[in-house]
Amino acid sequence: MKKFKIFLFLFIITKTLCAQSKKDLKNEKKKIENEIKITSGLLEKTKQNKLKSLNYVNALVTQIEKEESLVKMLNIEIKLKERKIKNINKKIFASKEIIFDKQAELEKLKNNYSKIIFSYSKNKGLKDLLMFIISAEDFNQAYKRLLYVRQYTTQRKNYLNQISKEQKQLRQEIVNLENIKKELETTTFQKKKLYEKKHENLNEISIKKNEKQQLITNLVKSEKYFKQKLKEKQKKSKELDEKIRKIIEEEIKKARKLAEKTNKLNLSPEALELTKKFTGNKRKLPWPVDNGVVIQKFGNKKHQIFSEVETFNNGVDIATDKNAIVNAVFDGTISRIFLVKGEGKAILISHGEFYTVYSGLQDVVVETGEKILTREKIGKVRYNEKEQRSLLHFEIWKGYDKVDPGDWIYKLY
Fold first, then answer.
1. 358 with 346: CB under 8 angstroms?
2. What tens digit of pLDDT does each residue of 143-165 get?
3. Is this prediction's pTM over 0.90?
4. Which CATH number among 2.70.70.10, 3.10.180.10, 2.60.40.10, 3.40.50.300 corresponds to the domain 223-407?
5. Mapped to the 3 state alphabet, what secondary structure does 71-93 carry?
C-alpha cells in the first residue's frame, strides 16, 4: 500500500510538471497546423500558374518545412503517449498488488471470524447466553462470563464491520483498475492514430519533395526569364532599403536638432524609455498579422533554384489571409507613410531607437505623427491579383542597422 502511495505521489508530481510542456506542445502543433493551412491555400491558388511562378516554389518549400515540423511534433506526442502507457501499466500492476493484498487480508479476517464463531459456539454450551452466565458457581465467575460474552460480541461486530469495509475497498479497487484499463485502451488507440497520421504526413512530404524537384527542373529551363524576375525583385528591395534609410536619417537628424534646442544629448527621455521597453520585449513582440506563415526569412542566402544567384532579404515576407489586418508590434509613433512602386503602401513606425516597417499594404488607417499602441490596427495587406496572394513584408531596424525580426517576434520561425 505504501509503495502504491509513493508511486501515485510521484506520478501526480510528474503530471503537474509536464502539464505546461504539454500545453506548449499543443499550442506549437496548432500554430504549425495553421501555417500549413495558409500555405496549402497559397499553393491551391497559385497551382494553375506554378510553372511560371517562383512564389509557388517558395510556398512549396515552406509547406514541406512545416509538415516536417509537424512530423517532429507527432513524434514527441507519440513518445508522450508511450510514456503514459508505461505509467498506466505501472498503475495497473500496483492496483493488482493492492487487490491481491486486500484479498489476502479479507481471507484472514474471514478465517479469524470463523474461529470466533466456532469458539463462541463451543463455549456457549448451555444453548443460550443467559444460562451460560447464571450457571456460574459464584458471582465472580458470573461476572467474568458476562465480560467474556461482551468481548466476543464486540469482536464479532468489529470483524463483521472490518470484513464489510475490506469488501467495499476491494470492490472500489477493482472499479479503479477497470477505469485504468479503459484509459490504457484509449491511450493505445490514440497512439495508433498518431502513428497513422505520421505515416500519412511522411507520404505527403515525399510527394511534395518529388513535385518540388520536378518543378525546379522545369523552372531551370526558363532560367533567363526567372533571373530577370529575381533581379527586378532585388532592385525593388534595394529601393525600399534606401527609402527607409533616408527616412531614418531624417528622423535621427530631427531628434538631434530637438536635443540641441533643449540642451540634451541623443534621444529624449521618452524615446530612451521606449527603446528600453522595446529591448525588454525581445522575442516577445506579437506578430504583425493574426494569421500568417513566413515564406522568406531575413538575411543573405543562395537561391533555392539558381544556386549562383544570391538574395538578401532586409526583413521577412509573411504570407497571410486575403484582406488581413496589419497591427503595430509595439507602442510608437507613425514616422512616415510612403509608396513602394508596384508593392503598395508602407508604414514606418518609430519606437525610440528602433523602427518597424510594414510594406505591401492596400489601405492605411493611421496618419503621420500619430501615436499608436501595441496590436493597434494600422492597415490592411494588399492582395496581388496576378499572383493571387497576400504578402506582408516586415522589417526591424535599430538606428541604421537592419536586424532579424526572428530575434524579436514571438516564435516567428
1. yes
2. 676 677 677 667 667 766 777 77
3. no
4. 2.70.70.10
5. HHHHHHHHHHHHHHHHHHHHHHH
